[in-house]
Amino acid sequence: MAPPSSGFATFLTRGRLNPEPLIHPLRLYLEAGIHLPEALRRLASRVPSALVPMVASLARETAAGMSLKDALEGWKDRLAPEIPALLAAGEESGRLPETLERLEEHLRQEAEASRKLVGALAWPILQALLAMGVLGIVLVVQGMTGTAGRVPGFGMGSVAPFVVLVAIGVGVAIGWRSLPGVSHGREALSRARLAGTLGLALDSGLAPGKALELAVSAADRQDWRERLPEGKRQIRGGKSLGVVLAGWPGMGTELLAAVDHGETTGQLPETMARQAFADRDHGNNMVCRTLMALGGLFWALSAAAVAYTVFRMYAGYLSLLNI
Prior knowledge:
Elements: H1 7-12, H2 20-31, H3 36-43, H4 52-63, H5 68-71, H6 82-93, H7 96-145, H8 160-175, H9 180-203, H10 208-219, H11 222-236, H12 241-246, H13 253-265, H14 268-321
Helix pairs in contact: 2-3, 2-7, 3-4, 6-7, 7-8, 7-9, 7-14, 8-14, 9-10, 9-14, 10-11, 13-14
């Protein structure tokens, strides 16, 4: 059954659902021997309100004999693409509790990475707003005193630092993703999503081609999506994942080495999990350091602009005293 759809409510809730609050208790119920339909029925009244329609629908349809894979079909557009496929693979392999446990850890790491990135963005933005606020207060005080129009050479020149600062801030806000440290960090985070989802999908019993499709979808890179059909064809032709990914841009030496090592040792899921953790940590650190440095630089420029404006005000008052 598809999720309900009506007017303004649909507009407000058209974003993806976060299944993390469902995964852990569902795993505990299944490990305790409770059947899936009954576990979902119990959880329908205990999960956050945003998840209630989906969980209630899954409970009804699995109780009626529908597989979890088919029951999730109508909710695919409300979930990250790898989640329904991984849950379906876990059900088909008879290892749904184990799949839920690995999926829980995967979602936890992704959520932690998102929180770090949001935190890294918030502080430089706050610094910029505070700096512009201080400079704006100085300009307001200057305007209230009426000196701007009466002191020769003062006038609009004192507003220039504020205008320049705002222009720099707008430029950075528009193009921050292209900054060297940020762009490299985002590449590492894309590799982390690819490796993490690939390992999770393979460990859930999915075929390599399907696992790669889910991993590319989670990584959300257009150049990888464009190479996916050819990559799946090569896998069907007998080529290894390491050979396929070696021709893709932005893979990185460490990730390719990890894939080769995992395929050689037969421990590709475990190797991908470790590589995802390393890439995620590296990417977060690069983005955070770059944005923190940018925030510090913006604050320094703001302080210099404030000092420049105050100096002009002081010089203006001295010129008035000498008249």
